[in-house]
Amino acid sequence: MSRNENARVVTRRAMLAAGASALAAPALATRAHAQAGDGGGLGAAGAPVKVRMIANEAFAKQWQSAMVPEFNKAHPHIEVTIDGVPYAELLAKSLLDVTGASPTYDVIIADDPWIPQLAQTGALLDLKKDAAAWTDKDFDWDDFNAAPLAASEWGGKQYGVPLRANMLLMFVNKTLYEKAGLPAPTPKLTWAEYLAQAPKLVQDLNGDGKPDAWAIDTYFTRDALTPTIWQAIMNADGVPLLDASGKPGFANEAGVKALQTHIDLMKFAPPGAASHGFNESLQAFRQGQVATMFMWGSVFRGTAVDPATTTLKPEQVGIQVMPVGAKGPGTHRGIWSGAVTNKSKQPRAAWALLQWLSSKRGELWHANTLGVFPARKSTLATPPESAWLVPVYAALQQAYDTAAPNQMWRPRHPKSDAVQQILADETARAMTGQLTAERALKNAAERIERTLR
Questions:
Q1: Which of 64, 181, 286, 366 has the fewest Cβ atoms within 10 Å of its own Cβ atom?
Q2: Digit-coded pLDDT (tens) for 2-56
Q3: Shared domain check, 281 and 262
Q4: CB distance 424 to 448 below 8 Å
Q5: What is the pLDDT of residue 37?
């Protein structure tokens, strides 16, 4: 069994366990809320309290070494331990922990589509209600942009706060556009204009008669995130993934058109692009081989700023929303949120940690020190300490404003992972020519409807 297959098996087992435990959720919540009125307190000199967090190993060590000491300047009597777990295992381990009789973790860090699945177990605190007495008066929930805050909302309750905001954006190599004799793109660039320019961006730079620069690289291979590209194209035309009744809303002419556009991008991509995903497209763009890349904005620093990872310089790299469709520009949300379990013995201290990290002060520190993208309007409106963040902030704010009304995110459902795997399966078959775009989406819609039913 492959690593990915094993991860899916573990996740399915965790989902079964979570479903069974949901029956006991009301009793568990009642016991949690019957804890001491101070929520365990914030500790004192000689009597610290301990908080344990489970997070993605990609940033857990950085948080432990840099963020925790900064947090302890404000809360010196809260000892924080952060356990990093590989992404493929994180949801399964989180579900198994929150549904256990004696959970290890006080804080769960969840990827964008996971909150409904975790919340369904009844194991998370509603932070606006359950933690209201422990929330600072100046925390200001209304200061968050709607799109990132909604990532941890489910069923009218706020189960988390955005900690590492991210959006799918368009990266531009301005040098390659200039060599092709084309104007650098703006956020008003339409899909029709982009596709008309693409052939000119396939260039022979060294004069040997063969292309050595291409128009685009992005997710094309079978990957859970590959359908986000197609979905962003489709959402820009105002087409939802799921309709108002919760059924697939993409097996139609507009959905097929969007998927075919994603497939057609391979005509202007480097050789072998059908097998390209996150790492391959990043490498191609950072080596100056492609003029554009549709990728998560969080890679900007390593793509345009850090000489250890890129051949490009900040003045060469543009960042903006994806091309414009009938309803506006495209993007897709990817937010890491922090949640507090209702079985925690120290819920107030756990919330103090998340509250500090997502506060106005904490966001500014996080952005300026670690380059992490903020979710608050006030942070994005504050000039950053690093010049390279200025265009990023502008692109993020436009992406947030675009995503919220057009629901540009993965399905908000406890079975979102299963839906995403189906989309990955079927769109991959269209990418490789095994099926037409129309047949692939019809298959996906039928499978998803059965899964959700």
A1: 181
A2: 334 444 444 444 444 444 444 444 434 434 443 446 788 999 999 999 999 999 9
A3: yes
A4: no
A5: 67
Cα distance between residue 65 and residue 56, in whole Å: 15
In whole angstroms, give the CA distance from residue 317 to residue 157: 39
Q: What is the pLDDT of residue 275?
A: 97
Distance CA 249, CA 227 (A): 14
Q: Tokens for 15, please give them.
A: 């989902």
Of 308, 360, 339, nearest to 123 (Cα)? Answer: 339
What was the pLDDT predicted at 251?
A: 96
For residue 184, name the pLDDT band (cuts at 50, 70, 90): very high
CA distance 392 to 381: 12
Between the CA of residue 268 and those of 27, 70, 219, 271, 303, what are the distances in Å? 57, 46, 13, 9, 21
Backbone angles phi, psi at 216, to 5 degrees: -150, 150
Global pTM reads 0.90
For 83, 111, 119, the CA distances from 350, given in Å and listed in that order, are: 15, 18, 17
**pLDDT average, residue stretch 93-107:** 96
The amino acid at residue 356 is W
Give the CATH number for residue 291: 3.40.190.10
Residue 399 falls inside a structural domain = no
- With tokens 């903020």, the residue in question is 374
Residue 390 lies in a domain: no
**What is the separation of C-alpha 230 from the centre of its chain, rounded to a whole number of angstroms?**
16
HEC secondary structure over the chain? CCHHHHHHHHHHHHHHHHHHHHHHHHHHHHHHHCCCCCCCCCCECCECEEEEEEEEHHHHHHHHHHHHHHHHHHCCCEEEEEEEECHHHHHHHHHHHHCCCCCCCCEEEECCCCHHHHHCCCCECCHHHHCHHHCCCCCCHHHECHHHHHCCEECCEECCEEEECCEEEEEEEHHHHHHCCCCCCCCCCEHHHHHHHHHHHCECCCCCCCCCEEEEECCCCCCCCCHHHHHHHHHCCCCCCECCCCCECCCCHHHHHHHHHHHHHHHHCCCCHHHCCHHHHHHHHHCCCEEEEEEEHHHHHHHHHCCCCCCCCHHHEEEECEEECCCCEECCECCEEEEEECCCCCHHHHHHHHHHHHCHHHHHHHHHHHCCCCCEHHHHCCCCCCCCHHHHHHHHHHHHHHHHHHCCCCCCCCCHHHHHHHHHHHHHHHHCCCCCHHHHHHHHHHHHHHHHC
Expressed as residue numbers, the domain containing 12 is 3-165+335-382
Same domain? 437 vs 317: yes
Residue 67: what pLDDT?
98
Domain count, the chain: 2
